[in-house]
Amino acid sequence: MPDGAIQERVFGITESAAKRIAFLKTQEENGDALRMRVSVLGGGCSGFQYVFDFDGGRNDDDHVFERSGVEVLVDDVSLDLLAGAQLDYKDELIGAYFAVENPNATSSCGCGTSFAIG
Fold first, then answer.
1. Does residue 3 lie within any of the structural domains?
2. CATH of the domain at 103
């Protein structure tokens, strides 16, 4: 990135994540009114941790990202740490889970839910 360039504040959603979110919404009461919220909180073993949950509301500082009819909310402060990242859903031998591929993370722990930035 050239000096002085500002990283675009986008957040991607893979097709795998969109499909899993759509399925999980069908398991929730009033699922049609829910959106997945991805946020970053201080804590975890690396300094920050990802939090995934459903939310029926939308805050003034929320950014909405959409894929295949599924909407994901990211608040403004979290988006600073997630700019350029992508939400994925992995179904592997060790288990199935949501994962964030975050270019801003300089390191992450083995659990995959916490990270550090340089």
1. no
2. 2.60.300.12
